[in-house]
Amino acid sequence: MNKKGKQSQTAWERALKHHHAGRLGEAERLYWHVLIDRSDDDVLLSNLGAALRGQGKQDQAVPCYRRAIVINPDNWQAHGNLGNALRDLGERQQAEKCYRKSIELDPSNAEPHCNLGQVLKENNELDEAADCFRRALELRPAYLEASIALSAIEESAGRTEQATDILWNGVSRQPVLTETCKRSVQANVLLFRGVEDCRYKLSDDFQHKMSGGHFSTSELLHDNQFTKHHFHIANGNLDSYSGELPRHDIIVNTVACPDREPKALKSLSAYLKSHKHAPLINDPDEVLKTGRDMNYQRLKDIKGITFPTTIRLTFKGMTPEQITESIKDSGIIPPLIMRRTGTQSAVSTRKLDAFGDIADYLAETDGDEFYVIQYVDCRYRDDYYRKLRLFCIDGKLYPVVCHIDQVWNVHGGNRKTLMKTNDWMQDEEKSFLNDPKAYVGADNYRLLENLHDIIKLDFFGVDFNLMADNSILIYELNPAMRHSLVHAESLPYLTPSLQVISDAFARMTIDRAGNL
Question: Per-residue confidence at 319, pLDDT binned at 50, 70, 90?
């Protein structure tokens, strides 16, 4: 090999080393250098395409893959990788053709089967998608992405037992799913999820999403800043885990509901106590204290704050009459609110106007454990109801929303109808977002800031309102609150405030990760 050939080979080896280490920009630079002498190397072109796509440069990756395929039409990896880049660009139909061609060339590789399944799932072709995921798992049993997707299809079809078996089998073999950063990595984040009780389900657009019990980081830790490794806790797999955790700079505990995932939280707590670990966001021991009844006990005596009387009752084996007597003994009187533990939003929640309504509610609602909450009528402008939300991030408060509705159980669904068509409601929300301290008053704001010293979490949300005497009525307080920009599509004025929240969480993560 001549001197020029040796230099090219050295650059190729260095490029591969950088690529494997995730230094994609440097790998890209070296691939281009090598390409000068090896322009007809389909493997080199395919690797260059992967480095470009890994940095979010899908439009530049596509011609690299196409050129590799021209050079070697039998390169199954290039066909599959071209499908990935086209799928990123929204070209699902073309991506599907690429995956099918990749499978035709080499049906023994699991990845194109799984990728084809993802495209078919997104097209609502669920039966064929499920077959693709099953085939991927036959070829690679420790393929968590396929396990999650297949379990989501089964769960959404009502086959909960099958979904659980598939998911638990998947996480027992490989509990970690990685999302690689597509730009310059600011931090490698290890996130913990609990799937002891929580499951993946299909969303309206046929993406698989966690069905509650966690806070989502999709808008808090963007993939152009962070590489995220998701560790799924289930069936004792963390307790017995002997493998090496992915390299990470910080841990984020996204398990947010002590009612749905107490086992996962306790398992994570024990693991962190027995292992030296990176900085942590949201101590699982503190999350375990955020049940509604426990929050009531912690906050009920704070002057200036009303946290409605809340009790947790286990109804298994009890008659409706016995249950009613237990509620009466607690001092809670109608109207009262009942909701099954572990549910969020409006699921299982009902306002009951008389003790006699309890039997009917229980007959219609599954479950053995329920919260019983004293209803406090806190109307806004006589005919409306209001819910203010703040996120607390690293001890600082950030305004999220000011929901105004015509029903007592205020939720975001009204944004596309009621709030969008009422300027005065939008003006109220803008006032809250622009200056929450002025909106609620300095004394109230100070009380809300002090909650961080009690709750001791790095990230949580509080839903509240102001009563007639201008004191605070807290509806709920926990980290199981979604941060999403979806409502900004209808009301664009929300975007700046929501972006501030995303930036604050990312900044906290980067700062903590840098203090190793």
Answer: confident
pTM of the model: 0.92
pLDDT in tens, 385-423: 999 999 999 999 999 999 999 999 997 777 888 999 999
Same domain, 320 and 222: no
Inter-residue contact 372 to 318 (CB < 8 Å)? no
Domain range holding 255? Answer: 175-284
Cβ-Cβ contacts under 8 Å for 392 (sequence gap 6 or more): 398, 451, 452, 455, 457, 459, 460, 461, 462
Nearest alpha-carbon partner for 359 in 312, 325, 407, 311: 325
Q: Which distant-in-sequence residues (6+ apart) come within 8 Å of 256 by Cβ?
A: 213, 214, 215, 282, 287, 478, 479, 480, 481
Question: Which residues, in sequence order, are CB contacts of 83 under 8 Å at separation 6+?
Answer: 94, 95, 96, 97, 98, 99, 102, 112, 115, 119
The pLDDT value given to residue 180: 87
Segments in 343-441 forming alpha helices (H): 358-364, 423-434, 436-440
User: Domain check: are 321 and 338 in the same one?
Assistant: yes
Residue with tokens 């011609």, as numbered in its chain: 63
- 304 located within any domain: no
